[in-house]
Amino acid sequence: MYATYFNNKFTNALVFYIFLLLLLLISPFLFFWELITTVTSCFRCHENMSGKVVLITGASSGLGELMAYEYAKRGAFLAVIAIKEPESRLEQVAARARELGSPDVIFVFADVSKVDECKMFVDRTVEHFSRLDHLVCNAGIGPIYSINHDVTKFLPVMDINFWGSVYSTHFAIPHLMKTKGKIIVNASSAGVLHPPKGGFYNASKAALISFYESLRFEVSPTISITILTLGFVQTNIITAEYSTKGVGARLQKDIKDVFPTMEAEPCAKAIVEGVCKGATSITEPRIYKALFLIKFLFPRLHSFYLKVVLRTLKLSGED
Ligand SMILES: NC(=O)c1ccc[n+]([C@@H]2O[C@H](COP(=O)([O-])OP(=O)(O)OC[C@H]3O[C@@H](n4cnc5c(N)ncnc54)[C@H](OP(=O)(O)O)[C@@H]3O)[C@@H](O)[C@H]2O)c1
Ligand SMILES: *[C@@H]1O[C@H](CO)[C@@H](O)[C@H](O)[C@H]1NC(C)=O
Ligand SMILES: *[C@@H]1O[C@H](CO)[C@@H](O)[C@H](O)[C@H]1NC(C)=O
Ligand SMILES: CC(=O)N[C@H]1CO[C@H](CO)[C@@H](O)[C@@H]1O
Questions:
Q1: Catalytic residue positions?
Q2: In the predicted model, is pLDDT for residue 318 greater than 60?
């Protein structure tokens, strides 16, 4: 009996390693396949955004704001959404987008974690513009705490990052069906790489990836979905309210030393360009794609890397 058990276990492991070896052997061909696809995609025609309607949640700052400007430069009508806060800059964002070339911009204050408010801003956008072409589910928060904290404090992470995107998508789908539109969802490389202590944030992003990867099959080919898995981009989320006690600010500085980071503006430009070219997933900085590959092919190397990073960031002692 033990022999069979050992045998099974051994064969299973062997099958895995043989498969891995085969994969490595054919990887030069796979590599060229990827390369050729990437090169040909450069020549694919861009969607003409002039006269199209784009709804962006979380557009009062960060990448959401910059994406609004990129769409504005392409002549799209815009509906920009953010939660009403004393310092919310949504009106200024709307004004700037008009200056940059958007023919008409509306702004709506709403909390994406509330289902009726999501219905309200989708309805209001369609009432005003009579159509919807792109839905950008961008609003997100990123706290950094360990499981030892009061766990209920983190319900908002799931409510905003995951449910906020799902609610908006639910109400937008009937309108996107009519225009053969697109959904752009803001996940994160953290949803794939799960660095330590990002548990709640990273889990909300992993849930997004999982949900939208299967939704893809449900709504295609009418609606296409672009999943963003960004690495560290220098915006203000890392210093946002949930990462209290100054850990956020220090972390942002430390992160720059150990992870590849990218400026927000070229990143927003790359995203909108990718979406208009019909990309199904976008990763910026590109180097993170290599990290994803390492994680799937060599999980031991991945955890070794994370341990080293954890030590460098000195996150282990505090929370
Ligand atoms: N920066 C990075 O390194 C990075 C990396 C990977 C993924 N991402 C993802 O990118 C997205 C945006 O990041 P960011 O750095 O640009 O963050 P940000 O500057 O803090 O922007 C977040 C936006 O979401 C809005 N928002 C927050 N809670 C909301 C709510 N309940 N309802 C409606 N709007 C709400 C904020 O509006 P108000 O301020 O007006 O509330 C703000 O406009 C997130 O989903 C994040 O997970 C970022
Ligand atoms: C894009 O569409 C607008 C109107 O829908 C049209 O006037 C313009 O010429 C188009 N631009 C290109 C580059 O095709
Ligand atoms: C996505 O969410 C993150 C915060 O989690 C934010 O930094 C970024 O601006 C958002 N937008 C895009 C397009 O990534
Ligand atoms: C890439 C990213 O934003 N990941 C998050 C996941 O959790 C880690 C843990 O510290 C955070 O640093 C990140 O914000």
A1: 201
A2: no
